[in-house]
Amino acid sequence: EAKRLGRSTACFYDMKLAAALEERMALENELRQALMNGEFELFYQPQISVSDTQCAVVEALLRWHSPARGVVSPVVFIPVLEETGMILEVTAWVLRQSCRQAKIWRQQGINLRISVNLSALDFRQTDLVSRIEQILQDEAVQADWIELEITESALLDDIDRTLCILHQLKELGLSVLMDDFGTGYSSLSYLKRFPFDGLKIDRNFVKDLPEDTSDAALVSAVLAMAKAMGLDVVAEGVETVEQQQMLADLGCPRLQGYLFSRPVSAQELLALDMFTTYPTP
Ligand code: C2E
Ligand code: MG
Ligand code: MG
Ligand code: MG
């Protein structure tokens, strides 16, 4: 009896594994079509300058409108793009699309910088810098219209190579921010060692403010340190007025979160009325 049960359990798991593999392959195949079929769209989430409560920077966040699955979260599909290497092509698309959008907004008299997420795999590409330079050139976009976000995990074990890439990106005129700051394990030493322009405090340290006193102490210390080092700071995941107030009091220059807006389409963004406009040429 035990033997028979054991066998049927094994068989059950084999079937589950087979189903999971099949689902994974289906997802991969659909993602291969997605770029070609125009199923990706960039949404944009405002970052508010505390000084004037206006938005000068938006983060580009990828959305996949799958015909079969509906809107799929990047948390689900970005890892698949990374594991298959497809992310390289997608990052190039995101960057190009961001450049085009930045130009459109400028024609409308709105000077918005766009912050683009790079993945760890992008950072491992040997010709990353020249590819980015090429896109900026093709699209005739000034480098200071674009910011790049990279996570600590994207930094290479080869410190010299990481330094070299960061310096080259800065030489192009791009700002580079460390994303999800605080979630890694050696963020502080990395900030000292690498030429970042700023950091984004991860939502995990913001979500329990203002009540959580240890998070408040940590955020306060990070802001003091960033100020001493001349770094820009964005707090992620600001959802309440109390959080906004506390972060402003602690001197955080930029805030991003649902309190101001969820990520929205380019068209919806303009309706938010958070932008200083300039006369169009
Ligand atoms: P991330 O770069 O840390 O982006 C911030 C995420 O936090 C976004 O999730 C955003 O919608 C969410 N968020 C913003 N404000 C709030 C808030 O107040 N409360 C809560 N609960 N969440 C908030 P999203 O759009 O689902 O993206 C998830 C992650 O997927 C991103 O995290 C990023 O790592 C990755 N991702 C998204 N777009 C791209 C892309 O174009 N390229 C790459 N390589 N990764 C991307
Ligand atoms: Mg980001
Ligand atoms: Mg982030
Ligand atoms: Mg985050």
TrEMBL record:
Domain EAL: 24-277
Domain of life, per lineage: Bacteria
Name of the molecule in the record: cyclic-guanylate-specific phosphodiesterase
Annotated organism of origin: Allopseudospirillum japonicum
Taxonomic classification: Bacteria, Pseudomonadati, Pseudomonadota, Gammaproteobacteria, Oceanospirillales
Residues of the full protein shown: 524 to 804 of 804
